[in-house]
Amino acid sequence: MENKKPDVIREQAEYRSTEFKTNDAMEVLQREYAQVKPVYEAGIREINARLETLDSEFSLKFMHNPIHHLESRVKSLDSIIVKLHSMGYPISISCAKKTLHDIAGVRVVCRYVDDIYRIADLLLAQDDINLILKKNYIENPKPNGYRSLHIVVDVPVYMSQGKLYIPVEIQIRTVAMDFWATLEHGIRYKRTDAVPPRIVDELRACADVITETDYKMQKIFQALQMVGDKDEESPESIIEADGRRPGR
């Protein structure tokens, strides 16, 4: 789930050669990171469990699974160091805990656009989930065409020291949005030069076409649901008409 852009990769390579990254300093960071990583992993497990429960319940009630699949990751120590450095913060795990909201990340890939908001609303309606931050890149896409709903929430986890609230970044997008984002990342990945403006425009145009298709597929799904609802009513009308069940 790590999507490192070329400039980040270059910065990471450069930063590895700085004086800070002595063996002693890294050993301290690695030791501290090893202690906090399980807490963030627990936060991810908690979010995943709640999402899977919502998806299962929705399937039973409405014969539809809004979630296509889930992905998750805990940010690597190298990525944490690079991000703190790029933001001008001190390089320490305590600083990372205070300033970085995306150390724990979950990606929710939904089937349709409506499912994105449905899942987000259901999760945020839980009384022990606290919303920290929300960015709607569906209504306001990034300049490159990227679309997704990002929310950061505090979720409770129970450790040996008691209950802790852990921030987890949740990216919610459709299969089509994920398709575009994955390929766009693949095109940009490992490039050492800037992507030409013409290619940037082409990628943005592709994102627009995919978005249009996304909404068309949702309308088709909704239309089929309406047809299915009518079909479910038809046997009852047959019973009322002649007093016999179909097939008898």
Which secondary structure elements does this structure contain, and how are they paired or packed?
Layout: H1 6-15, H2 23-62, E1 67-74, H3 77-87, H4 93-99, E2 104-110, H5 113-124, E3 130-136, E4 149-159, E5 162-174, H6 175-188, H7 197-242
Parallel strand pairs: 2-5
Antiparallel strand pairs: 1-2, 3-4, 4-5
Summary, kept brief:
With 248 residues, the chain is of the alpha+beta class. Helix content is 56%, strand content 19%.
Describe this structure in words.
This protein has one domain: Beta Polymerase, domain 2 (2-Layer Sandwich). The protein is an alpha+beta fold. The protein has a 5-stranded mixed β-sheet. It has 7 helices and 5 strands. Helix 1 packs across helix 3 (77-87) and helix 6 (175-188) runs antiparallel to helix 7 (197-242).
Question: How many structural domains are formed by the residues?
Answer: 1
CATH architect. name = 2-Layer Sandwich
Helicity level, as a percent range? 55-70%
Sheet with most strands: strand arrangement: 1-2-5-4-3
Low-confidence stretches: 234-248
Instruction: Quickly count the helices.
Output: 7
